[in-house]
Specification:
about 30% strand; alpha+beta; five-stranded mixed β-sheet; Alpha-Beta Plaits; 5 strands
C-alpha cells in the first residue's frame, strides 16, 4: 500500500455561501483570486469555483494541492489573504473539507483559521503524481 503524508497530493473543498445581493461582486472577487492563484502557485494543480445548481448563493472551491507545502504557499499568498478578508464582507458561511492525508504542521495551519474543518484521511488508494 502506498504511503500518504505531507508530500502527497490532497483535495480541499471550500463550501461557501454568499450574502443576498452579493453574488456578482463575489464572482468578480473569485475571478480575480483564481487568476492570481493560477499565475503564482505552481503547487495548485486544480482550482475551480463551482456554483450549486439548487442555490445560486452557494459555491464550492475545488482545489487540488501537490502537497502540504503547496497549501502553505496558497494561504500565505497575498491575493488569497485579500480574498478571505473580502469574503467576510460578502459571504455568510465558509466550511472546509479536506480529502487526503496531511502532516501535523499542515493540519495545525488549517485549524488556525478557525473555520469549520473536516479532514477525511486516506485509508487506501494511489496517486499518479
Amino acid at each position: 500500500m502506498a504511503s500518504f503524508d505531507k508530500n502527497t497530493p490532497f483535495m480541499l473543498l471550500a463550501r461557501i455561501h454568499v450574502k443576498p445581493d452579493c453574488v456578482e461582486a463575489y464572482l468578480e472577487l473569485a475571478r480575480a483570486t483564481d487568476a492570481a492563484v493560477q499565475a503564482s502557485e505552481p503547487g495548485m494543480l486544480h482550482h475551480t469555483f463551482d456554483q450549486d445548481p439548487d442555490d445560486p448563493q452557494a459555491f464550492v472551491w475545488s482545489e487540488l494541492y501537490a502537497n502540504d507545502a503547496a497549501f502553505a504557499a496558497h494561504v500565505s499568498n497575498p491575493p488569497v489573504q485579500e480574498y478571505l478578508q473580502k469574503h467576510a464582507e460578502l459571504g455568510d458561511d465558509f466550511r472546509v473539507e479536506v480529502y487526503g492525508t496531511v502532516g501535523d504542521e499542515c493540519r495545525t495551519l488549517m485549524q488556525s483559521f478557525g473555520l469549520p474543518l473536516k479532514i477525511f484521511e486516506t485509508q487506501l488508494g494511489y496517486s499518479r503524481v
